[in-house]
Write a structure and sequence with these properties.
The complex is a heterodimer. By secondary structure, chain A is an all-alpha fold. Helices cover 76% and strands 0% of the residues of chain A. Chain A is globular. Chain B is an all-alpha fold. Chain B has a two-stranded antiparallel ribbon.
């Protein structure tokens, strides 16, 4: 295992630890801050990879990651949050705090098992469990919370996991990669608009929608 | 000459650029003009040979999708002009609505001409960004909840298909569709990628198990938007699945796609019986049609032609049905099936058209959907035997009974409001229904375009 793989492992473990932290954090500002740090970490990983392999293209990708996911998106989300302060704390998560910590630890174990039992036959790398676990954690964050902010962060964690996948596999062509970044920004902007609207009309988060049943 | 292939996309791009300017007050006229331009150039492209460059790959399938998308685009723009005045508590002004509609169609027209699986992914994800706010045009609680579910579920689903794109790239070392078609050796990860791609893009196409956003979004969006969603957006996602099936023509992948298609029509069959809201009911009918179309795509050959016939006929018939439900909603002011009685007496043209529209989307002869389902059922019989064919037929029949029974209850019963004056706009759904009928008679032509690439 070379130094880059070690750096990848280190960043990967920190990422997973940060998602588990998000699971039991109820203050949304802290979740957003944690997400911002985790994005900077991924950008740092890309920066190291780009320097060591001398690939300018990965350096650009690192800059884009830091700029969009480390800086702009968290800033944008916190600006929305500042307008309705009462929303800053998740009051009614669908899965209780203690059980969600337990479940996210289980997911980590499951991600490893899933990878070593099935996917390792397809993929020639022993780094695979990290992005898979991270992706499942992101998915669980979406399922377990009812706050739109946390659900959006869960989606962004999944996106980060995709970028970690990019380390194991050959990087996609730059035009595709740039398109993905643009799309991601679009999704966040649209979500921000919808979050604003949702906060205006729904004051308690979890309502019954008879018109959306069946 | 090559630029002519890009004209439909260019027209909608011009439309969206002009509509975003708030000082121009002609957004409706501009949208109609660019939609006519897009339709005319799409039809003209039918007569041109196939075209491949590094960026664009335009074959018979792309041409049919271009014509279908721009035809529905024109109908939806015209119907929107009538409908938008009846939307209460609008989220944004009319010029922004038309800007979003034009941009939404732009992304879909772009998806079907690309020669790069990665860029197809980018374009499909871009349809989410451009269409989300359109759902919440009518600004109320459940509409915004439906929009949020759409954004989060579809985005998560598309992440899955992004993994598929990465896997496919790592095994072929290219994403260019034309180059992938030339390769015939596959690694195991290729199949895995193809399966993930079907699940991921299936989210957007309303395929089981990631279909849950679809009834919410279709049920709560304004009628012209529901029409575009059901008629064009879902098929465009199926188009991406078809590209993956063409790139990885493996039997296991096809069986997987077949299974998901069968589960989708089973779900639609059971759900169509207990629907309370009529737009949701027709949304389940979309899941039904997309399921059977996916089955056809997985089988290939004649069933592939059957799928395209269903997609085309369903596009025209379902857009007509959603336009008509919009008219029903304006007059009855209720979303519920039980509150809508005797449309055939209060709004005769709407009522009878809705009745025929409901028959058309459930695959009744002589509409194009029937011919398509017939071709697919024959192909299922040849591939999987009699039991699976009967099962598929049973699910289709259940959806047929469920949806048409509810429509009959709405159309032919004692009216609960007085007779209304019919608006001239009802001519648009009637034309679309006639086009759904015309698909049957155009089937040899469609076959020719699909396999030879040119209208001959």
């Amino acid at each position: 295992m070379n130094h880059l793989d070690n750096a990848f492992l280190l960043v990967g473990f920190l990422e997973i630890a940060m998602v588990i932290f998000m699971q039991w954090e109820v203050y949304i500002t802290n979740i957003i801050k944690t997400f911002s740090i985790s994005s900077y970490l991924i950008a740092l990983l890309f920066l190291i990879v780009g320097f060591i392999n001398k690939e300018n293209y990965i350096l650009i990708l690192a800059a884009l990651t830091a700029l969009t996911r480390g800086l702009i998106i968290p800033f944008y989300l916190r600006r929305i949050l500042r307008k309705d302060k009462w929303r800053a704390r998740e009051t009614s998560p669908l899965v209780g705090i203690s059980s969600s910590i337990l479940i996210s630890l289980l997911i980590t174990v499951m991600g490893y098992l899933l990878y070593s039992l099935t996917l390792s036959n397809y993929i020639n790398s022993n780094l695979g469990p990290i992005p898979i676990t991270l992706m499942m954690q992101g998915m669980f964050l979406i399922i377990s919370r009812s706050s739109t902010f946390t659900q959006l962060i869960g989606y962004l964690v999944m996106e980060n996991a995709m970028y970690m996948f990019g380390y194991i596999f050959p990087e996609l062509p730059f035009i595709v990669e740039a398109g993905i970044v643009l799309d991601l920004l679009g999704v966040v902007m649209i979500s921000g608009a919808i979050i604003r609207l949702r906060e205006d009309v729904i004051k308690n988060g979890s309502e019954e929608y008879t018109e959306l049943k069946g | 000459m090559e630029y002519i292939y890009l004209l439909p996309v260019l027209f909608s791009a011009i439309g969206s650029l002009l509509c975003i300017l708030p000082f121009l007050k002609f957004e409706e006229d501009i949208s109609v003009i660019v939609a006519i331009g897009a339709l005319a150039t799409s039809i003209y492209i039918l007569f041109l040979p196939n075209y491949t460059t590094d960026f664009f790959y335009i074959d018979g399938l792309s041409k049919i999708f271009l014509v279908m998308t721009s035809a529905i685009y024109l109908a939806a723009v015209i119907f929107s002009i009538y409908y938008i005045d009846h939307i209460q508590n609008k989220l944004f002004q009319s010029h922004f609505y038309f800007f979003l509609l034009n941009t939404f169609v732009l992304t879909m027209l772009f998806t079907v001409i690309l020669n790069n699986l990665g860029l197809i992914w980018v374009a499909v994800e871009a349809t989410t960004v451009t269409s989300a706010l359109l759902i919440s045009t009518e600004n109320d609680e459940s509409t915004i909840e439906a929009t949020w579910r759409y954004v989060i579920i579809v985005s998560v689903g598309l992440i899955i298909s992004l993994i598929a794109v990465i896997f496919i790239y790592s095994s072929f070392k290219t994403l260019s569709f034309a180059d992938i078609l030339k390769q015939h050796s596959y690694e195991r990860i290729t199949y895995f990628g193809a399966v993930l791609g079907i699940i991921g893009f299936g989210t957007k196409a309303g395929i089981f198990p990631m279909h849950t956003w679809l009834p919410d979004a279709h049920g709560k969006a304004p009628s012209p938007i529901s029409a575009v969603f059901s008629a064009v957006l879902l098929p465009v996602a199926l188009f991406a699945i078809e590209r993956i099936l063409q790139a990885v023509p493996d039997n296991g992948v096809k069986v997987f796609a077949f299974t998901l298609g069968l589960l989708s029509i089973a779900l639609a069959a059971f759900m169509s019986f207990n629907q309370v809201y009529y737009k949701r009911m027709f949304a389940y009918s979309s899941i039904d049609n997309m399921g059977i179309a996916l089955i056809g795509l997985s089988l290939g050959g004649y069933a592939f032609v059957g799928s395209i016939l269903i997609i085309l006929a369903h596009a025209f018939a379902k857009s007509a049905t959603f336009f008509l439900t919009g008219n029903v909603l304006i007059n009855y002011e209720s979303w519920k099936i039980d509150d809508v009685k005797g449309i055939s007496k209060t709004l005769p043209a709407t009522g009878y058209s809705l009745f025929f529209g409901s028959l058309a989307v459930t695959g009744t002869p002589p509409f194009g959907t029937f011919l398509g389902e017939l071709l697919i059922l024959i192909s299922i019989f040849n591939t999987y035997g009699v039991m699976i064919t009967l099962l598929t037929g049973l699910f289709l029949a259940m959806a047929f009974i469920g949806i048409n029974y509810q429509t009959l209850r709405m159309v032919f019963s004692e009216p609960n409001i007085e007779k209304r004056k019919e608006n001239y706009i009802v001519i648009i759904p009637i034309i679309n229904l006639l086009l759904a009928l015309a698909v049957t008679f155009a089937s040899p032509l469609i076959y020719n375009i699909l396999f030879n690439g040119v209208w001959k």
